[in-house]
Amino acid sequence: MKKVFVLDTSVLLEDPNSLFSFEDNDVIIPVVVLEEIDHKKRLGDDIGRNARHVSRILDNIREEGGHLQKGVNIEGGGYLKIELNHKHFEEVGNYFNEKTNDNRILAVALNLLKEEQQNESGKQVILVSKDVLVRVKANALGISSQDYLSGKIVSNDEMYLGFESLMIPPHIIDELYSTHHLKFSAKLFSNYEIYPHKFFILKDELGTSKSAIAIYNPNSQNLELVSTSEYDIWGIKARNAQQKMAMELLLDDKIPLVTITGRAGTGKTLLALASGLLKTEELSIYKKLLVARPIVPMGKEIGFLPGDKQEKLRPWIQPIYDNLEYIFGTHKNGNIEDILIGLKRVEVEALTFIRGRTIPNQFIIIDEAQNLTKHEVKTIVSRVGEGSKIVLVGDPEQIDHPYLDSSNNGLTYLVEKFKDYSEAAHIKLIKGERSRLAQLAADIL
User: Fold this and answer.
1) Are 123 and 248 part of one and the same domain?
2) What is the CATH number of the domain that holds 335?
3) Count of domains for the chain
4) Residue 84: which residues within 8 A CB-CB, separation 6 or more?
5) Where are the extended beta strands (E) located within 169-221?
6) 10/161 Cα distance (integer angstroms)
7) pTM of the predicted structure, to 2 decimals
8) Which of residues 78 and 161 earns the better pLDDT score?
9) CB within 8 A of 206, min separation 6: which ones?
């Protein structure tokens, strides 16, 4: 039986092509959604781009199919209609007093539900929204609701970790230490998915403390031993197995794309910065270290802040300076800005100012990459020039962007799309190293 899907503004602003994702069912857009999209189309970010895209799609459908308020057939066999009627707004107002746009959308869905209930073969009415509270309010009114799932890449629990633990006979671990590599065995790894540069923590199946860390080399198709010696990069050392894996990837110049995820305090940005400084300032493998992070406001926009460009940017990029201060020890030995002036190869920018550039022969770090959309990630990575290495770090569980979550953000998208390619590698950091309190907060709050 066909269904009626009422789309919230958040769905269209995340995926302008969502109109065509409901097969041969009815797709209803409340007129207030068009007003909200109209208000967003002047924005210069991805939300504004998607608002303009939706506007063009609707205009093309209007030109080809006729009057949208009467309903038109669309690609895929569906039926699209702009709904003007929300006569049940008073009923919604009995529960939710404010005349907000969300409540007007709920009124449209409630009106359609009442109409369908009067028909013997009435269709099921479903409100589709990325806004959790809109879905909860719909449920309170007796309206079926659901999240828009088409844009989801993978659930957070299923996201690729970049490593697995494997129980094996102890003689295989001994062989790995003696030869520094193991020929890949399909039998031994029959229950495991193999991806380029994936790590395996090998443990003795007999229960002894014997163990090793190996990485899968896609070129030789061997497992290669990861050195157990301590990394020391500008005074930064790996404190756990996953940090050691991250350093292995960060220091490998043959891997141009590295993604690192993990909760706050796991050392993502710190490890990336230390590796970038080593590769640029000390080894001169790259001409410049470029560090950038997206500006996702939780209060006023950046334009309302006083001062010139650098003064406006400082609050947004302060976390990067904090990590650099830790590396340089400037809490004892000087001012971080004075040190950066002496380091001509280091550039710290807001992501706004690197889009559109071609960036060759540079070590690029994109911090807080979980706040990027799929389009923004594509734009950034596709700008990486010859001889550059790009590292994207972030926590998919900590997102500030209003239309993204852990399963549809650009970082998760990048990890899942690139895990099959030898040009990319990923690792998730598990253990927090900032402090016992920070780790406890991440676990229980």
Assistant:
1) no
2) 3.40.50.300
3) 2
4) 31, 69
5) 181-183, 199-204, 211-217
6) 29
7) 0.77
8) 161
9) 169, 170
